[in-house]
Write a structure and sequence with these properties.
Blueprint (H helix, E strand, L loop, with lengths): L3 E7 L18 E7 L3 E7 L4 E6 L4 E6 L6 E4 L5 E6 L4 E6 L3 E4 L2 E4 L4 E8 L3 E7 L2 E6 L4 E6 L11 E4 L9 E3 L5 E5 L9 E5 L5 E2 L11 E6 L3 E6 L3 E5 L4 E4 L13 E4 L5 E6 L3 E6 L4 E7 L3 E6 L5 E6 L3 E6 L5 E6 L18 E3 L3 E6 L4 E6 L4 E7 L4 E8 L5
Antiparallel strand pairs: 1-2, 3-4, 3-36, 4-5, 6-7, 7-8, 8-11, 9-10, 12-13, 13-14, 14-15, 16-17, 17-18, 18-19, 20-21, 21-22, 22-23, 24-25, 25-26, 26-27, 28-29, 29-30, 30-31, 32-33, 33-34, 34-35
């Protein structure tokens, strides 16, 4: 994916003189990196139901109306759609990047830009997943999954299905395998966090009941590839294959008893995942070698994300130090101190703090207290633009149209 264009401006001055030998001055040349015109930020407001749709390419901001304020914003697998969950209001809605996109000798009609056809009610929609062409939301209130096809978002060509996971209500999570089966958490004897994982099909049947199920001390955080799902727990990283086999990967010896990964991310390498925690930093989880190694160690990790392609891992501390590591090499591609004062104080999950997202050449950071989004260029970490909003940004994600053919 290329989320940038190079705009080159050259001023050519020709001076003709028959007498001077100093008439061959070097031509001035200026290069400016700007964002892809087919990319935008979808931003929710902490105080109203207004959504801002910011296009950095031309500095435009459009307003749209969500059903409620303070929506959690997610991008689907393709990046063409946003999914907005409202946990406290038992509601989920969708957004279409939309419009007609020129692409060489032809164009792509993505439908009407704005709020899309799919929306639904469910009990405390919380955990989001978009993979294998599906979108799924785990509903903490009744341990069900809301499942629908991503390509139906703009016209509701297929319905949202409710899948009963067969567990008591809890703060749950899921991974969808390539074959369409689902690894989903089970509450067990706990009071809040699940303790084990089972595999079900989309007809709600439990699969591989003859396989050994590993019971952990509590699960939070998950990620997956086509055939493997992993879940974070204090007992270790729980690995669940699509064939039903389960195993644990131990944490490094220097991890304290209460240090464990409650958040996990997939990468472009099927064997490498990312686990992170505020007090230890970000780490690679190699499921083939069954080992956990540091990406960026810190005792004040503020944000950690991966790029859309999964080839970069972004670690940002509360003090504003940025480290972006390549998955393939394990080396830092960009690093340095940002000249940005972020909103980092988080009292609870609904706190209005800074969010981040990454494009090919820029990192974007929201500053809710100043009602703005800051754009920084990665190759020198300089601030290239500040976008003043008419809302207080709660969360945002990059959406965009990317056509490779």
């Amino acid at each position: 994916m290329k989320l940038f264009k190079i705009l080159s401006y050259a001023l050519v001055i020709s001076v003709f003189s028959s007498c001077s030998s100093d008439d061959t001055d070097e031509l001035p040349f200026e290069e400016q990196i700007v964002e892809n015109e087919n990319m935008a930020l979808l931003i929710s407001d902490s105080e109203s139901n207004v959504l801002n749709f910011l296009k950095p390419y031309n500095n435009s901001i459009l307003d749209f109306q969500a059903r409620f304020s303070g929506g959690s914003i997610y991008a689907t697998e393709s990046g063409l759609y946003g999914v907005i969950t409202h946990r406290d209001n038992n509601f989920t809605e969708t957004f279409n990047y939309g419009g007609e996109i020129d692409h060489g000798s032809h164009s792509h009609d993505l439908g009407e830009q704005g709020m899309a056809a799919i929306s639904f009610e469910s009990q405390s929609p919380t955990h989001f997943k978009s993979e294998q062409g599906y979108v799924s939301v785990y509903n903490d209130g009744d341990a069900t999954l809301s499942l629908f096809n991503e390509n139906s978002i703009y016209n509701e060509s297929s319905p949202v299905r409710t899948i009963n996971t067969g567990s008591a209500a809890h703060h749950g999570a899921m991974v969808i395998y390539e074959n369409g089966t689902i690894a989903v958490t089970e509450l067990g004897s706990g009071v809040g966090l699940p303790e084990s994982v089972k595999i079900i099909n989309q007809s709600e049947e439990v699969l591989f009941e003859d396989e050994t199920v590993i019971v952990t001390s509590g699960i939070h955080g998950n990620a997956g590839n086509d055939n493997v799902a992993i879940f974070g727990s204090n007992t270790g990283i729980l690995v669940v294959k699509s064939t039903g086999q389960q195993s644990l990967i131990n944490y490094p010896n220097d991890f304290e008893d209460d240090a464990w990964f409650g958040s996990l991310l997939s990468t472009s390498d099927d064997n490498l995942f990312v686990g992170y925690t505020t007090s230890k930093g970000a780490y690679f989880i190699n499921i083939e070698a069954e080992e956990i190694t540091p990406i960026y160690e810190t005792n004040n990790l503020f944000k950690c994300i991966t790029s859309k392609e999964g080839d970069l891992v972004v670690s940002l501390t509360g003090e504003g130090y940025l480290n972006i590591t390549e998955v393939e090499t394990g080396l830092a591609k960009y690093q340095g101190q940002l000249n940005v004062t972020m909103d980092t104080e988080a009292i609870d999950h609904s706190a209005v703090i800074s969010s981040i997202d990454l494009s090919e050449d820029f990192i974007y950071i929201s500053i809710p207290t100043q009602k703005k989004i800051v754009q920084l260029q990665l190759n020198n970490l300089s601030i290239t633009n500040e976008y003043n909003l008419n809302i207080t940004p709660f969360q945002f994600k990059i959406l965009g149209a990317d056509f490779d053919h």
